[in-house]
């Protein structure tokens, strides 16, 4: 693969890093004692080009830029879609106006998701889509004459985003937002569901009891289906989703699936919701192939009509960049590419390589568990990870990872080749050894 032309930023890399350290916040870092960052000077295929104190590094991206760049970088089809749309219009307000990219994307999403999901809200980020879904659930209950139903049932170990509604349904104890507990809306938390093959019946009994106890105050249920992401990369039994669907139906609750991380093939199905259909579906991350921020909330006619019967008569949300034409155009091109390249075969290939490369780590010193699901590979340590040491070890193997908590994991682009997948597994093993 040819190297990119010299980026002018690379020549002043040291200056950029100094200013970055003194003035820029990065996710979940301190301003006064920031964690180290690397300067990216370009990206192509599945590789990132880094300037590490004047030394050029070409590394495999094992993270898909936080699970979004499923096709890799500098993808000709997505570049072309972006350039073509930029030549028409980059943005226009969605209030009182519409445009072909938004309409075409909504039509495509309705066609590839479960039949009951017929109505689409185009949000501008994953967290915002969850906020919208929560509002939908609350307004549905108001439209059905039950305004007292204002709480959500959710799962321990979950993560749904960083805004306030999202934080309220994240794990209240082990999650990243426990310091805000006193100012968050109090939700109802069921136990984390069992792993595949576990005691679903026992878990279900507890959740049914919890729902019955709070039925008069619950508006809905929100979960990440099949895989809990940033809350711990926990894989659980699909039968739990059937239980949640039954509980929602029994108590008149709106069932929300947050597929921001799991949607568009990551766990082996295009959508987990194709197995159990929710009332509301949130999509994001991979929707634009990692090019632009965009999310979508799909819901049923029953929910849409109930919202219209609430006192406002309308869904009370409307972001400035809702339905951004650039993002919608790239999302359409990404969905085209996903189908054309045969994502199912790619995800199976990635899964097989991760299983072969990571399974030998089970039982290694410091390793509590190894989990592989679709294009997701997780090494769960029995202690908190030393992120700096783990990252450095992976970089020495030519791979970029981003460990957190007690996890070293990978969600590579679907197009990652066999040699690079093997390299990723070696890097994860090296990181686990020193972390």
From TrEMBL:
<dbReference type="Pfam" id="PF00202">
    <property type="entry name" value="Aminotran_3"/>
</dbReference>
<dbReference type="InterPro" id="IPR005814">
    <property type="entry name" value="Aminotrans_3"/>
</dbReference>
<dbReference type="GO" id="GO:0005737">
    <property type="term" value="C:cytoplasm"/>
</dbReference>
<feature type="modified residue" description="N6-(pyridoxal phosphate)lysine">
    <location>
        <position position="285"/>
    </location>
</feature>
<feature type="binding site">
    <location>
        <position position="285"/>
    </location>
    <ligand>
        <name>substrate</name>
    </ligand>
</feature>
<dbReference type="InterPro" id="IPR005815">
    <property type="entry name" value="BioA"/>
</dbReference>
<feature type="binding site">
    <location>
        <position position="258"/>
    </location>
    <ligand>
        <name>pyridoxal 5'-phosphate</name>
    </ligand>
</feature>
<keyword id="KW-0963">Cytoplasm</keyword>
<feature type="binding site">
    <location>
        <begin position="126"/>
        <end position="127"/>
    </location>
    <ligand>
        <name>pyridoxal 5'-phosphate</name>
    </ligand>
</feature>
<keyword id="KW-0808">Transferase</keyword>
<dbReference type="GO" id="GO:0030170">
    <property type="term" value="F:pyridoxal phosphate binding"/>
</dbReference>
<keyword id="KW-0093">Biotin biosynthesis</keyword>
<dbReference type="GO" id="GO:0004015">
    <property type="term" value="F:adenosylmethionine-8-amino-7-oxononanoate transaminase activity"/>
</dbReference>
<keyword id="KW-0032">Aminotransferase</keyword>
<dbReference type="InterPro" id="IPR015422">
    <property type="entry name" value="PyrdxlP-dep_Trfase_small"/>
</dbReference>
<comment type="similarity">
    <text>Belongs to the class-III pyridoxal-phosphate-dependent aminotransferase family. BioA subfamily.</text>
</comment>
<dbReference type="InterPro" id="IPR049704">
    <property type="entry name" value="Aminotrans_3_PPA_site"/>
</dbReference>
<dbReference type="InterPro" id="IPR015424">
    <property type="entry name" value="PyrdxlP-dep_Trfase"/>
</dbReference>
<dbReference type="InterPro" id="IPR015421">
    <property type="entry name" value="PyrdxlP-dep_Trfase_major"/>
</dbReference>
<protein>
    <recommendedName>
        <fullName>Adenosylmethionine-8-amino-7-oxononanoate aminotransferase</fullName>
        <ecNumber>2.6.1.62</ecNumber>
    </recommendedName>
</protein>
<comment type="subunit">
    <text>Homodimer.</text>
</comment>
<keyword id="KW-0663">Pyridoxal phosphate</keyword>
<feature type="binding site">
    <location>
        <position position="402"/>
    </location>
    <ligand>
        <name>substrate</name>
    </ligand>
</feature>
<dbReference type="GO" id="GO:0009102">
    <property type="term" value="P:biotin biosynthetic process"/>
</dbReference>
<feature type="binding site">
    <location>
        <position position="66"/>
    </location>
    <ligand>
        <name>substrate</name>
    </ligand>
</feature>
<feature type="binding site">
    <location>
        <begin position="319"/>
        <end position="320"/>
    </location>
    <ligand>
        <name>pyridoxal 5'-phosphate</name>
    </ligand>
</feature>
<comment type="function">
    <text>Catalyzes the transfer of the alpha-amino group from S-adenosyl-L-methionine (SAM) to 7-keto-8-aminopelargonic acid (KAPA) to form 7,8-diaminopelargonic acid (DAPA). It is the only aminotransferase known to utilize SAM as an amino donor.</text>
</comment>
<feature type="binding site">
    <location>
        <position position="318"/>
    </location>
    <ligand>
        <name>substrate</name>
    </ligand>
</feature>
<feature type="site" description="Participates in the substrate recognition with KAPA and in a stacking interaction with the adenine ring of SAM">
    <location>
        <position position="28"/>
    </location>
</feature>
<keyword id="KW-0949">S-adenosyl-L-methionine</keyword>
<feature type="binding site">
    <location>
        <position position="159"/>
    </location>
    <ligand>
        <name>substrate</name>
    </ligand>
</feature>
<comment type="pathway">
    <text>Cofactor biosynthesis; biotin biosynthesis; 7,8-diaminononanoate from 8-amino-7-oxononanoate (SAM route): step 1/1.</text>
</comment>
